[in-house]
Protein backbone atom coordinates (compact mmCIF):
# COMPACT_ATOMS: atom_id res chain seq x y z
CA UNK A 1 0.00 0.00 0.00
CA UNK A 2 1.00 3.66 -0.16
CA UNK A 3 2.70 4.63 3.10
CA UNK A 4 2.49 8.19 4.41
CA UNK A 5 6.02 8.12 5.82
CA UNK A 6 7.78 7.30 2.57
CA UNK A 7 8.13 8.94 -0.79
CA UNK A 8 8.23 5.60 -2.60
CA UNK A 9 4.98 4.43 -4.22
CA UNK A 10 4.23 0.75 -3.67
CA UNK A 11 1.68 -0.85 -6.00
CA UNK A 12 -1.50 -2.20 -4.37
CA UNK A 13 -4.11 -2.86 -7.06
CA UNK A 14 -2.29 -1.45 -10.08
CA UNK A 15 -0.96 -3.64 -12.88
CA UNK A 16 2.63 -3.26 -14.06
CA UNK A 17 1.43 -1.19 -17.01
CA UNK A 18 -0.72 1.16 -14.90
CA UNK A 19 0.10 4.77 -14.18
CA UNK A 20 -2.47 5.13 -11.40
CA UNK A 21 -3.45 3.06 -8.38
CA UNK A 22 -6.76 2.92 -6.50
CA UNK A 23 -7.01 1.28 -3.06
CA UNK A 24 -8.39 1.42 0.52
CA UNK A 25 -12.09 1.60 -0.31
CA UNK A 26 -14.47 2.60 2.48
CA UNK A 27 -18.21 2.97 2.08
CA UNK A 28 -20.33 5.23 4.26
CA UNK A 29 -24.14 5.11 4.11
CA UNK A 30 -24.47 8.57 5.67
CA UNK A 31 -22.44 11.63 6.73
CA UNK A 32 -18.78 10.93 7.46
CA UNK A 33 -15.53 12.79 8.02
CA UNK A 34 -15.17 13.37 4.26
CA UNK A 35 -18.67 14.36 3.07
CA UNK A 36 -21.96 15.31 4.69
CA UNK A 37 -23.71 12.55 2.77
CA UNK A 38 -23.29 8.88 1.89
CA UNK A 39 -19.97 8.40 0.11
CA UNK A 40 -17.44 5.97 -1.29
CA UNK A 41 -13.95 6.93 -0.08
CA UNK A 42 -10.72 5.63 -1.59
CA UNK A 43 -7.04 6.43 -2.04
CA UNK A 44 -5.57 7.54 -5.37
CA UNK A 45 -1.87 7.56 -6.22
CA UNK A 46 0.59 7.59 -9.10
CA UNK A 47 2.61 4.36 -9.33
CA UNK A 48 5.77 6.01 -10.71
CA UNK A 49 6.21 2.84 -12.79
CA UNK A 50 5.01 4.43 -16.03
CA UNK A 51 5.19 7.98 -17.35
CA UNK A 52 2.00 9.93 -16.73
CA UNK A 53 0.69 12.29 -19.42
CA UNK A 54 0.33 16.00 -18.85
CA UNK A 55 -2.87 16.94 -17.05
CA UNK A 56 -4.20 18.82 -20.08
CA UNK A 57 -4.01 15.63 -22.21
CA UNK A 58 -6.45 13.87 -19.87
CA UNK A 59 -8.69 16.94 -19.74
CA UNK A 60 -8.82 17.07 -23.55
CA UNK A 61 -9.84 13.41 -23.85
CA UNK A 62 -12.39 13.50 -21.03
CA UNK A 63 -14.01 16.77 -22.11
CA UNK A 64 -14.77 15.21 -25.51
CA UNK A 65 -17.38 13.15 -23.59
CA UNK A 66 -18.11 15.71 -20.85
CA UNK A 67 -17.64 19.21 -22.37
CA UNK A 68 -18.55 20.91 -19.07
CA UNK A 69 -15.23 19.69 -17.62
CA UNK A 70 -13.17 21.49 -20.26
CA UNK A 71 -13.21 24.97 -18.72
CA UNK A 72 -12.64 23.96 -15.11
CA UNK A 73 -9.24 24.16 -13.41
CA UNK A 74 -7.54 21.15 -11.83
CA UNK A 75 -4.65 21.20 -9.38
CA UNK A 76 -3.61 17.57 -9.91
CA UNK A 77 -4.43 14.29 -11.66
CA UNK A 78 -6.23 13.26 -8.49
CA UNK A 79 -8.37 16.39 -8.66
CA UNK A 80 -9.34 15.62 -12.28
CA UNK A 81 -9.99 11.97 -11.40
CA UNK A 82 -12.34 12.96 -8.57
CA UNK A 83 -14.23 15.46 -10.74
CA UNK A 84 -14.54 12.93 -13.59
CA UNK A 85 -15.72 10.16 -11.29
CA UNK A 86 -18.34 12.48 -9.81
CA UNK A 87 -19.66 13.25 -13.29
CA UNK A 88 -19.64 9.64 -14.50
CA UNK A 89 -21.43 8.62 -11.29
CA UNK A 90 -24.54 10.43 -12.57
CA UNK A 91 -24.64 7.62 -15.20
CA UNK A 92 -26.19 9.92 -17.82
CA UNK A 93 -29.36 9.50 -15.75
CA UNK A 94 -29.07 12.86 -13.98
CA UNK A 95 -28.70 11.10 -10.64
CA UNK A 96 -28.51 13.53 -7.72
CA UNK A 97 -24.88 12.79 -6.90
CA UNK A 98 -22.71 15.87 -7.31
CA UNK A 99 -20.66 16.15 -4.12
CA UNK A 100 -17.06 15.08 -3.77
CA UNK A 101 -13.97 15.99 -1.78
CA UNK A 102 -10.24 15.43 -1.98
CA UNK A 103 -7.47 15.45 0.63
CA UNK A 104 -3.76 15.31 0.01
CA UNK A 105 -1.67 12.88 2.10
CA UNK A 106 1.95 13.16 1.03
CA UNK A 107 2.33 10.89 -2.00
CA UNK A 108 -1.35 9.99 -2.39
CA UNK A 109 -4.79 11.61 -2.24
CA UNK A 110 -7.93 10.54 -0.46
CA UNK A 111 -11.04 11.00 -2.61
CA UNK A 112 -14.68 10.87 -1.49
CA UNK A 113 -17.48 10.57 -4.05
CA UNK A 114 -21.15 10.93 -3.13
CA UNK A 115 -22.82 7.54 -3.44
CA UNK A 116 -26.38 6.24 -3.51
CA UNK A 117 -25.53 2.59 -4.12
CA UNK A 118 -22.01 1.48 -3.21
CA UNK A 119 -21.78 -1.37 -5.74
CA UNK A 120 -22.53 0.97 -8.64
CA UNK A 121 -20.25 3.74 -7.37
CA UNK A 122 -17.38 1.31 -6.93
CA UNK A 123 -17.94 0.13 -10.51
CA UNK A 124 -17.80 3.77 -11.62
CA UNK A 125 -14.42 4.26 -9.91
CA UNK A 126 -12.90 1.21 -11.58
CA UNK A 127 -14.34 2.25 -14.94
CA UNK A 128 -12.89 5.78 -14.66
CA UNK A 129 -9.57 4.22 -13.68
CA UNK A 130 -9.64 2.09 -16.85
CA UNK A 131 -10.53 5.19 -18.84
CA UNK A 132 -7.56 7.15 -17.47
CA UNK A 133 -5.21 4.23 -18.21
CA UNK A 134 -6.61 3.96 -21.76
CA UNK A 135 -5.98 7.68 -22.31
CA UNK A 136 -2.41 7.17 -21.11
CA UNK A 137 -1.88 4.39 -23.65
CA UNK A 138 -3.75 6.28 -26.41
CA UNK A 139 -6.24 3.41 -26.68
CA UNK A 140 -10.01 3.23 -26.69
CA UNK A 141 -12.35 2.20 -23.90
CA UNK A 142 -15.82 0.70 -24.50
CA UNK A 143 -17.45 3.73 -22.90
CA UNK A 144 -21.11 3.28 -23.90
CA UNK A 145 -21.01 -0.46 -23.20
CA UNK A 146 -19.52 0.07 -19.75
CA UNK A 147 -21.94 2.89 -19.00
CA UNK A 148 -24.90 0.67 -19.93
CA UNK A 149 -23.60 -2.03 -17.58
CA UNK A 150 -23.38 0.49 -14.74
CA UNK A 151 -26.85 1.84 -15.52
CA UNK A 152 -28.29 -1.68 -15.40
CA UNK A 153 -26.47 -2.31 -12.12
CA UNK A 154 -28.08 0.77 -10.61
CA UNK A 155 -31.49 -0.15 -12.03
CA UNK A 156 -31.28 -3.50 -10.26
CA UNK A 157 -30.55 -1.79 -6.95
CA UNK A 158 -33.14 -0.95 -4.30
CA UNK A 159 -33.16 2.65 -5.53
CA UNK A 160 -33.28 1.82 -9.24
CA UNK A 161 -37.04 1.65 -9.74
CA UNK A 162 -38.39 4.81 -11.42
CA UNK A 163 -40.98 5.56 -8.74
CA UNK A 164 -38.71 4.76 -5.80
CA UNK A 165 -35.92 6.88 -7.26
CA UNK A 166 -38.26 9.79 -8.01
CA UNK A 167 -39.46 9.81 -4.40
CA UNK A 168 -35.90 9.45 -3.06
CA UNK A 169 -34.66 12.34 -5.16
CA UNK A 170 -37.60 14.54 -4.20
CA UNK A 171 -37.10 13.71 -0.51
CA UNK A 172 -33.44 14.72 -0.82
CA UNK A 173 -34.40 18.02 -2.46
CA UNK A 174 -36.95 18.75 0.27
CA UNK A 175 -34.59 17.80 3.11
CA UNK A 176 -36.76 14.84 4.16
CA UNK A 177 -34.70 11.92 5.54
CA UNK A 178 -35.11 8.78 3.42
CA UNK A 179 -33.44 5.38 3.62
CA UNK A 180 -34.02 1.75 2.74
CA UNK A 181 -34.99 -0.85 5.33
CA UNK A 182 -33.22 -3.96 4.05
CA UNK A 183 -34.96 -6.51 6.24
CA UNK A 184 -38.42 -5.19 5.39
CA UNK A 185 -37.81 -4.32 1.75
CA UNK A 186 -39.33 -0.88 2.37
CA UNK A 187 -38.35 2.76 2.06
CA UNK A 188 -38.64 4.91 5.18
CA UNK A 189 -39.29 8.63 4.98
CA UNK A 190 -38.83 10.69 8.15
CA UNK A 191 -37.75 9.71 11.67
CA UNK A 192 -39.44 8.17 14.70
CA UNK A 193 -43.08 9.04 15.26
CA UNK A 194 -42.96 11.30 12.18
CA UNK A 195 -41.99 8.53 9.73
CA UNK A 196 -43.88 6.65 7.03
CA UNK A 197 -42.79 3.47 5.26
CA UNK A 198 -43.72 2.15 1.87
CA UNK A 199 -43.03 0.39 -1.40
CA UNK A 200 -43.09 2.83 -4.34
CA UNK A 201 -46.49 4.62 -4.00
CA UNK A 202 -47.95 2.23 -1.42
CA UNK A 203 -47.52 3.27 2.21
CA UNK A 204 -47.98 1.77 5.66
CA UNK A 205 -51.07 3.88 6.33
CA UNK A 206 -52.87 2.55 3.24
CA UNK A 207 -55.61 -0.02 3.64
CA UNK A 208 -54.28 -3.40 2.54
CA UNK A 209 -57.91 -4.44 2.01
CA UNK A 210 -58.50 -1.59 -0.45
CA UNK A 211 -55.17 -2.27 -2.14
CA UNK A 212 -56.07 -5.93 -2.60
CA UNK A 213 -59.55 -4.97 -3.79
CA UNK A 214 -58.15 -2.97 -6.71
CA UNK A 215 -56.38 -6.11 -8.00
CA UNK A 216 -59.71 -7.93 -8.26
CA UNK A 217 -60.73 -6.20 -11.44
CA UNK A 218 -64.12 -7.92 -11.67
CA UNK A 219 -65.24 -6.99 -8.16
CA UNK A 220 -63.83 -3.50 -8.49
CA UNK A 221 -65.65 -3.00 -11.79
CA UNK A 222 -68.93 -4.14 -10.21
CA UNK A 223 -68.37 -1.72 -7.31
CA UNK A 224 -67.77 1.21 -9.67
CA UNK A 225 -70.91 0.27 -11.60
CA UNK A 226 -72.90 0.23 -8.34
CA UNK A 227 -71.71 3.78 -7.63
CA UNK A 228 -72.99 4.87 -11.04
CA UNK A 229 -69.62 5.32 -12.74
CA UNK A 230 -69.25 4.37 -16.43
CA UNK A 231 -67.66 0.92 -16.95
CA UNK A 232 -67.55 -1.21 -20.11
CA UNK A 233 -70.06 -4.00 -20.66
CA UNK A 234 -68.62 -7.50 -20.20
CA UNK A 235 -68.20 -10.56 -18.01
CA UNK A 236 -65.72 -12.92 -16.34
CA UNK A 237 -64.98 -16.18 -18.12
CA UNK A 238 -62.95 -19.27 -17.27
CA UNK A 239 -62.52 -20.88 -20.70
CA UNK A 240 -62.24 -19.94 -24.35
CA UNK A 241 -65.75 -21.22 -25.14
CA UNK A 242 -67.23 -18.81 -22.60
CA UNK A 243 -65.11 -16.00 -24.05
CA UNK A 244 -66.60 -16.63 -27.51
CA UNK A 245 -70.09 -16.64 -26.01
CA UNK A 246 -69.64 -13.31 -24.21
CA UNK A 247 -68.08 -11.76 -27.33
CA UNK A 248 -71.09 -12.75 -29.41
CA UNK A 249 -73.42 -11.29 -26.80
CA UNK A 250 -71.76 -7.88 -26.39
CA UNK A 251 -70.40 -7.66 -29.94
CA UNK A 252 -66.93 -7.04 -31.34
CA UNK A 253 -64.55 -5.30 -30.89
CA UNK A 254 -63.71 -6.56 -27.42
CA UNK A 255 -60.85 -6.36 -24.94
CA UNK A 256 -59.46 -9.38 -23.08
CA UNK A 257 -57.34 -9.27 -19.92
CA UNK A 258 -56.62 -11.39 -16.84
CA UNK A 259 -58.52 -10.52 -13.67
CA UNK A 260 -55.23 -10.46 -11.75
CA UNK A 261 -52.43 -8.53 -13.45
CA UNK A 262 -50.47 -5.31 -13.86
CA UNK A 263 -48.52 -3.20 -16.39
CA UNK A 264 -50.80 -4.31 -19.21
CA UNK A 265 -49.36 -7.85 -19.20
CA UNK A 266 -51.76 -10.22 -20.95
CA UNK A 267 -54.05 -7.39 -22.10
CA UNK A 268 -55.32 -7.27 -25.69
CA UNK A 269 -57.57 -4.47 -26.88
CA UNK A 270 -59.64 -4.08 -30.06
CA UNK A 271 -60.09 -7.83 -30.72
CA UNK A 272 -62.09 -7.95 -33.95
CA UNK A 273 -63.14 -11.59 -34.28
CA UNK A 274 -62.92 -15.23 -33.11
CA UNK A 275 -59.45 -15.80 -34.58
CA UNK A 276 -57.99 -12.79 -32.74
CA UNK A 277 -59.92 -13.85 -29.63
CA UNK A 278 -58.15 -17.22 -29.61
CA UNK A 279 -54.71 -15.57 -29.56
CA UNK A 280 -55.77 -12.91 -27.04
CA UNK A 281 -57.22 -15.54 -24.72
CA UNK A 282 -53.92 -17.42 -24.86
CA UNK A 283 -51.95 -14.30 -23.89
CA UNK A 284 -54.29 -13.56 -20.98
CA UNK A 285 -54.09 -17.16 -19.79
CA UNK A 286 -50.30 -17.11 -19.95
CA UNK A 287 -50.19 -13.95 -17.81
CA UNK A 288 -52.12 -15.48 -14.90
CA UNK A 289 -49.82 -16.50 -12.01
CA UNK A 290 -49.62 -20.24 -11.38
CA UNK A 291 -51.18 -19.89 -7.92
CA UNK A 292 -54.23 -18.04 -9.29
CA UNK A 293 -57.37 -19.58 -10.85
CA UNK A 294 -58.24 -19.02 -14.50
CA UNK A 295 -60.41 -15.90 -14.51
CA UNK A 296 -60.35 -13.62 -17.54
CA UNK A 297 -62.29 -10.45 -18.33
CA UNK A 298 -64.01 -10.11 -21.69
CA UNK A 299 -65.48 -6.65 -22.18
CA UNK A 300 -66.55 -4.24 -24.86
CA UNK A 301 -63.65 -2.36 -26.43
CA UNK A 302 -64.38 1.36 -26.55
CA UNK A 303 -62.85 3.62 -29.17
CA UNK A 304 -60.80 6.47 -27.85
CA UNK A 305 -57.44 7.26 -26.27
CA UNK A 306 -55.96 5.59 -23.20
CA UNK A 307 -55.56 7.92 -20.21
CA UNK A 308 -54.26 7.53 -16.66
CA UNK A 309 -55.78 9.85 -14.05
CA UNK A 310 -53.83 10.14 -10.81
CA UNK A 311 -55.19 11.11 -7.42
CA UNK A 312 -53.10 11.71 -4.31
CA UNK A 313 -54.78 11.80 -0.91
CA UNK A 314 -58.18 11.87 -2.60
CA UNK A 315 -57.37 14.80 -4.88
CA UNK A 316 -56.75 14.81 -8.62
CA UNK A 317 -53.19 15.89 -9.45
CA UNK A 318 -52.31 14.66 -12.96
CA UNK A 319 -53.49 13.05 -16.17
CA UNK A 320 -51.48 11.51 -18.97
CA UNK A 321 -52.39 10.07 -22.35
CA UNK A 322 -50.65 6.80 -23.20
CA UNK A 323 -50.08 5.91 -26.84
CA UNK A 324 -48.77 2.58 -28.14
CA UNK A 325 -45.21 2.34 -29.41
CA UNK A 326 -44.82 3.27 -33.07
CA UNK A 327 -42.21 3.88 -35.74
CA UNK A 328 -42.11 6.15 -38.80
CA UNK A 329 -40.89 4.70 -42.08
CA UNK A 330 -37.93 6.08 -44.03
CA UNK A 331 -38.52 4.16 -47.24
CA UNK A 332 -35.61 1.71 -46.93
CA UNK A 333 -35.32 0.39 -43.34
CA UNK A 334 -37.24 -2.61 -42.03
CA UNK A 335 -39.51 -2.30 -39.01
CA UNK A 336 -36.95 -4.24 -36.99
CA UNK A 337 -34.19 -1.79 -38.03
CA UNK A 338 -36.42 1.20 -37.28
CA UNK A 339 -37.12 -0.18 -33.80
CA UNK A 340 -33.38 -0.59 -33.19
CA UNK A 341 -32.76 3.00 -34.30
CA UNK A 342 -35.59 4.26 -32.12
CA UNK A 343 -34.23 2.37 -29.12
CA UNK A 344 -30.87 4.13 -29.51
CA UNK A 345 -32.40 7.54 -28.80
CA UNK A 346 -31.36 9.11 -25.46
CA UNK A 347 -35.01 9.47 -24.42
CA UNK A 348 -35.23 5.67 -24.51
CA UNK A 349 -32.25 4.92 -22.29
CA UNK A 350 -34.59 2.81 -20.17
CA UNK A 351 -33.28 4.34 -16.95
CA UNK A 352 -35.21 5.50 -13.85
CA UNK A 353 -35.25 9.05 -15.24
CA UNK A 354 -35.79 8.50 -18.99
CA UNK A 355 -39.19 9.54 -20.40
CA UNK A 356 -39.62 6.38 -22.47
CA UNK A 357 -38.66 2.72 -22.21
CA UNK A 358 -37.14 0.78 -25.07
CA UNK A 359 -39.61 -0.76 -27.51
CA UNK A 360 -40.08 -4.43 -26.66
CA UNK A 361 -40.51 -6.99 -29.44
CA UNK A 362 -42.79 -9.86 -28.41
CA UNK A 363 -45.54 -12.15 -29.65
CA UNK A 364 -48.25 -9.51 -29.16
CA UNK A 365 -46.33 -7.10 -31.39
CA UNK A 366 -45.78 -9.68 -34.12
CA UNK A 367 -49.47 -10.68 -34.10
CA UNK A 368 -50.56 -7.06 -34.37
CA UNK A 369 -48.16 -6.50 -37.26
CA UNK A 370 -49.63 -9.57 -38.98
CA UNK A 371 -53.10 -8.07 -38.61
CA UNK A 372 -51.75 -5.08 -40.54
CA UNK A 373 -50.20 -7.48 -43.10
CA UNK A 374 -46.75 -6.54 -41.88
CA UNK A 375 -43.78 -8.19 -40.19
CA UNK A 376 -40.52 -7.09 -38.60
CA UNK A 377 -38.94 -7.51 -42.03
CA UNK A 378 -41.37 -5.12 -43.74
CA UNK A 379 -40.04 -1.86 -45.20
CA UNK A 380 -42.29 1.13 -44.47
CA UNK A 381 -42.72 3.99 -46.89
CA UNK A 382 -41.21 7.29 -45.90
CA UNK A 383 -43.27 9.34 -43.44
CA UNK A 384 -45.81 6.59 -42.69
CA UNK A 385 -46.42 5.84 -38.99
CA UNK A 386 -47.01 2.24 -37.96
CA UNK A 387 -48.28 1.41 -34.48
CA UNK A 388 -46.62 -1.69 -33.09
CA UNK A 389 -49.24 -2.86 -30.61
CA UNK A 390 -52.83 -2.19 -29.61
CA UNK A 391 -52.18 -1.60 -25.94
CA UNK A 392 -50.48 1.61 -24.83
CA UNK A 393 -48.05 -0.16 -22.48
CA UNK A 394 -45.38 2.36 -21.43
CA UNK A 395 -43.03 -0.35 -20.11
CA UNK A 396 -43.03 -1.85 -23.63
CA UNK A 397 -42.13 1.42 -25.35
CA UNK A 398 -45.36 3.42 -25.32
CA UNK A 399 -45.42 7.23 -25.32
CA UNK A 400 -46.73 9.39 -22.46
CA UNK A 401 -48.30 12.78 -23.14
CA UNK A 402 -49.27 15.15 -20.34
CA UNK A 403 -53.03 15.77 -20.41
CA UNK A 404 -53.44 17.46 -17.02
CA UNK A 405 -54.41 20.93 -18.38
CA UNK A 406 -57.13 19.44 -20.61
CA UNK A 407 -59.21 17.86 -17.82
CA UNK A 408 -62.87 18.88 -17.76
CA UNK A 409 -64.08 19.82 -14.24
CA UNK A 410 -66.62 16.97 -14.34
CA UNK A 411 -63.81 14.50 -15.00
CA UNK A 412 -61.79 15.88 -12.07
CA UNK A 413 -64.80 15.42 -9.80
CA UNK A 414 -65.29 11.89 -11.15
CA UNK A 415 -61.67 10.96 -10.35
CA UNK A 416 -61.87 12.43 -6.85
CA UNK A 417 -65.23 10.76 -6.15
CA UNK A 418 -63.66 7.40 -7.00
CA UNK A 419 -60.47 8.05 -4.98
CA UNK A 420 -62.40 9.05 -1.88
CA UNK A 421 -63.92 5.57 -1.67
CA UNK A 422 -60.46 4.10 -0.99
CA UNK A 423 -58.08 4.54 1.95
CA UNK A 424 -55.10 4.80 -0.37
CA UNK A 425 -52.50 7.56 -0.65
CA UNK A 426 -52.18 7.14 -4.40
CA UNK A 427 -54.77 5.88 -6.86
CA UNK A 428 -54.43 5.54 -10.62
CA UNK A 429 -57.60 5.43 -12.71
CA UNK A 430 -57.32 4.09 -16.26
CA UNK A 431 -59.98 5.40 -18.64
CA UNK A 432 -60.78 5.42 -22.34
CA UNK A 433 -62.03 8.69 -23.72
CA UNK A 434 -62.00 10.54 -27.01
CA UNK A 435 -61.13 13.76 -25.22
CA UNK A 436 -60.63 14.53 -21.52
CA UNK A 437 -61.78 18.06 -22.27
CA UNK A 438 -65.33 16.72 -22.66
CA UNK A 439 -67.40 15.73 -19.64
CA UNK A 440 -67.75 12.00 -19.01
CA UNK A 441 -71.49 12.62 -18.82
CA UNK A 442 -71.53 13.21 -22.58
CA UNK A 443 -70.73 9.54 -23.22
CA UNK A 444 -67.90 7.58 -24.86
CA UNK A 445 -65.99 7.57 -21.58
CA UNK A 446 -65.38 4.38 -19.60
CA UNK A 447 -63.29 3.39 -16.60
CA UNK A 448 -61.15 0.37 -17.41
CA UNK A 449 -59.63 -0.26 -13.98
CA UNK A 450 -58.05 1.36 -10.94
CA UNK A 451 -54.55 0.81 -9.58
CA UNK A 452 -53.40 0.99 -5.97
CA UNK A 453 -49.69 1.44 -6.73
CA UNK A 454 -49.50 3.79 -9.73
CA UNK A 455 -46.14 4.83 -11.15
CA UNK A 456 -45.16 8.49 -11.20
CA UNK A 457 -42.57 8.86 -13.95
CA UNK A 458 -45.14 9.13 -16.75
CA UNK A 459 -46.34 12.33 -15.03
CA UNK A 460 -43.00 13.59 -13.73
CA UNK A 461 -41.17 13.08 -17.01
CA UNK A 462 -43.63 12.58 -19.89
CA UNK A 463 -42.34 12.12 -23.42
CA UNK A 464 -44.50 15.06 -24.52
CA UNK A 465 -45.77 17.98 -22.46
CA UNK A 466 -45.07 19.53 -19.09
CA UNK A 467 -43.92 17.76 -15.94
CA UNK A 468 -46.24 17.36 -12.96
CA UNK A 469 -44.30 17.02 -9.73
CA UNK A 470 -46.27 14.06 -8.40
CA UNK A 471 -43.56 12.98 -5.89
CA UNK A 472 -43.90 16.36 -4.16
CA UNK A 473 -47.67 15.92 -3.94
CA UNK A 474 -47.13 12.50 -2.36
CA UNK A 475 -44.53 13.56 0.20
CA UNK A 476 -46.47 16.71 1.08
CA UNK A 477 -49.34 14.42 2.05
CA UNK A 478 -47.19 13.34 4.99
CA UNK A 479 -44.84 16.28 5.52
CA UNK A 480 -45.81 19.91 4.96
CA UNK A 481 -42.14 20.82 5.49
CA UNK A 482 -38.86 19.08 6.21
CA UNK A 483 -39.31 19.83 9.92
CA UNK A 484 -42.45 17.70 9.94
CA UNK A 485 -40.34 14.68 8.99
CA UNK A 486 -37.93 14.97 11.92
CA UNK A 487 -37.89 14.42 15.65
CA UNK A 488 -35.38 16.22 17.92
CA UNK A 489 -31.91 14.63 17.89
CA UNK A 490 -29.14 15.27 20.42
CA UNK A 491 -25.67 14.14 19.37
CA UNK A 492 -22.67 13.69 21.70
CA UNK A 493 -19.08 12.90 20.84
CA UNK A 494 -18.73 11.15 24.19
CA UNK A 495 -21.22 10.35 26.90
CA UNK A 496 -21.17 7.79 29.74
CA UNK A 497 -24.10 5.53 30.55
CA UNK A 498 -24.60 7.47 33.78
CA UNK A 499 -24.75 10.82 31.96
CA UNK A 500 -26.96 9.32 29.26
CA UNK A 501 -29.47 8.10 31.86
CA UNK A 502 -29.36 11.47 33.60
CA UNK A 503 -30.15 13.18 30.30
CA UNK A 504 -33.05 10.81 29.62
CA UNK A 505 -34.45 11.37 33.11
CA UNK A 506 -34.14 15.15 32.72
CA UNK A 507 -36.18 15.13 29.50
CA UNK A 508 -38.78 12.70 30.90
CA UNK A 509 -39.28 14.96 33.90
CA UNK A 510 -40.47 17.63 31.47
CA UNK A 511 -42.19 15.28 29.00
CA UNK A 512 -43.30 12.20 30.97
CA UNK A 513 -45.32 10.79 28.07
CA UNK A 514 -42.43 10.81 25.61
CA UNK A 515 -40.57 7.82 24.22
CA UNK A 516 -36.83 8.56 24.14
CA UNK A 517 -34.30 6.39 22.33
CA UNK A 518 -30.63 6.57 23.21
CA UNK A 519 -27.51 4.76 22.04
CA UNK A 520 -23.89 5.00 23.13
CA UNK A 521 -20.95 2.67 22.61
CA UNK A 522 -21.90 0.64 25.68
CA UNK A 523 -25.71 0.46 25.65
CA UNK A 524 -29.05 1.07 23.94
CA UNK A 525 -32.01 2.50 25.87
CA UNK A 526 -35.66 3.24 25.30
CA UNK A 527 -36.52 5.55 28.19
CA UNK A 528 -35.10 3.80 31.28
CA UNK A 529 -35.22 0.33 29.75
CA UNK A 530 -31.95 -1.11 28.47
CA UNK A 531 -32.34 -2.95 25.14
CA UNK A 532 -30.38 -5.55 23.19
CA UNK A 533 -27.52 -3.95 21.27
CA UNK A 534 -26.62 -4.87 17.69
CA UNK A 535 -22.88 -5.25 16.93
CA UNK A 536 -23.35 -2.85 14.03
CA UNK A 537 -23.55 0.57 15.65
CA UNK A 538 -25.63 2.34 13.00
CA UNK A 539 -28.13 -0.52 12.97
CA UNK A 540 -28.97 0.46 16.55
CA UNK A 541 -29.50 4.05 15.42
CA UNK A 542 -31.70 2.99 12.50
CA UNK A 543 -33.78 0.69 14.70
CA UNK A 544 -34.53 3.54 17.08
CA UNK A 545 -35.45 5.89 14.25
CA UNK A 546 -37.69 3.13 12.87
CA UNK A 547 -39.67 3.10 16.13
CA UNK A 548 -43.08 4.69 15.29
CA UNK A 549 -43.47 5.95 18.88
CA UNK A 550 -40.07 7.64 19.23
CA UNK A 551 -40.26 11.33 20.25
CA UNK A 552 -36.53 12.08 20.64
CA UNK A 553 -33.18 10.44 19.88
CA UNK A 554 -29.85 10.73 21.73
CA UNK A 555 -26.73 9.32 20.06
CA UNK A 556 -23.02 9.18 20.80
CA UNK A 557 -20.64 9.41 17.82
CA UNK A 558 -16.98 9.13 18.82
CA UNK A 559 -14.04 9.52 16.46
CA UNK A 560 -13.69 5.74 16.28
CA UNK A 561 -17.29 5.28 15.10
CA UNK A 562 -17.16 8.24 12.73
CA UNK A 563 -14.03 6.94 11.01
CA UNK A 564 -15.23 3.34 10.91
CA UNK A 565 -18.96 3.66 10.19
CA UNK A 566 -19.85 7.31 9.68
CA UNK A 567 -23.21 8.63 10.86
CA UNK A 568 -26.59 7.17 10.02
CA UNK A 569 -28.44 10.49 9.83
CA UNK A 570 -27.78 14.06 8.78
CA UNK A 571 -28.68 16.93 11.07
CA UNK A 572 -28.81 17.38 14.84
CA UNK A 573 -30.91 19.78 16.87
CA UNK A 574 -28.27 19.86 19.58
CA UNK A 575 -24.61 18.83 19.46
CA UNK A 576 -22.61 18.43 22.67
CA UNK A 577 -18.84 18.13 22.23
CA UNK A 578 -16.56 17.28 25.14
CA UNK A 579 -12.92 18.04 24.22
CA UNK A 580 -13.57 16.96 20.63
CA UNK A 581 -10.95 15.69 18.20
CA UNK A 582 -10.64 17.23 14.75
CA UNK A 583 -12.72 14.39 13.33
CA UNK A 584 -15.44 14.78 15.98
CA UNK A 585 -15.80 18.46 15.09
CA UNK A 586 -17.65 17.25 11.97
CA UNK A 587 -20.68 16.85 14.23
CA UNK A 588 -20.92 20.64 14.38
CA UNK A 589 -20.72 20.70 10.56
CA UNK A 590 -23.97 18.73 10.32
CA UNK A 591 -25.98 20.80 12.78
CA UNK A 592 -29.38 22.05 11.64
CA UNK A 593 -30.29 25.72 11.30
CA UNK A 594 -31.45 27.26 14.56
CA UNK A 595 -29.95 24.48 16.64
CA UNK A 596 -27.71 24.51 19.69
CA UNK A 597 -23.98 23.73 19.83
CA UNK A 598 -22.18 23.22 23.12
CA UNK A 599 -18.39 22.76 23.05
CA UNK A 600 -16.22 22.08 26.10
CA UNK A 601 -12.44 22.44 25.83
CA UNK A 602 -10.79 22.04 29.21
CA UNK A 603 -12.85 24.24 31.52
CA UNK A 604 -13.87 26.61 28.73
CA UNK A 605 -17.43 26.48 27.34
CA UNK A 606 -18.53 27.82 23.97
CA UNK A 607 -22.28 28.00 23.47
CA UNK A 608 -23.66 28.70 19.99
CA UNK A 609 -27.43 29.14 19.85
CA UNK A 610 -29.48 30.72 17.04
CA UNK A 611 -26.63 32.90 15.81
CA UNK A 612 -25.51 34.01 19.26
CA UNK A 613 -22.18 32.89 20.72
CA UNK A 614 -21.49 32.83 24.43
CA UNK A 615 -18.20 31.86 26.07
CA UNK A 616 -17.49 31.22 29.75
CA UNK A 617 -15.62 28.89 32.09
CA UNK A 618 -17.00 26.09 34.23
CA UNK A 619 -17.19 26.88 37.90
CA UNK A 620 -15.16 24.88 40.39
CA UNK A 621 -16.64 21.38 40.64
CA UNK A 622 -19.40 22.38 38.21
CA UNK A 623 -20.34 19.27 36.13
CA UNK A 624 -20.54 19.59 32.34
CA UNK A 625 -23.95 17.89 32.43
CA UNK A 626 -25.38 20.94 34.16
CA UNK A 627 -24.46 23.09 31.13
CA UNK A 628 -26.07 21.04 28.41
CA UNK A 629 -29.09 19.85 30.42
CA UNK A 630 -30.02 23.51 30.88
CA UNK A 631 -29.85 24.01 27.09
CA UNK A 632 -32.01 21.00 26.20
CA UNK A 633 -35.10 23.08 26.89
CA UNK A 634 -34.29 25.19 23.81
CA UNK A 635 -34.91 22.26 21.44
CA UNK A 636 -37.72 20.22 23.08
TrEMBL record:
InterPro entries the UniProt entry points to: ATP-grasp (IPR011761), CPAse_ATP-bd (IPR005479)
SUPFAM superfamilies: Glutathione synthetase ATP-binding domain-like (SSF56059)
Domain of life: Bacteria
Any GO BP annotation: SOS response
A GO MF term: metal ion binding
Keyword Nucleotide-binding in record: yes
Domain ATP-grasp, residue spans: 221-479
Keywords: ATP-binding, Nucleotide-binding
One Gene Ontology cellular component: cytoplasm
Keyword Nucleotide-binding attached: yes
Protein name: ATP-grasp domain-containing protein
Species the sequence originates in: Dulcicalothrix desertica PCC 7102
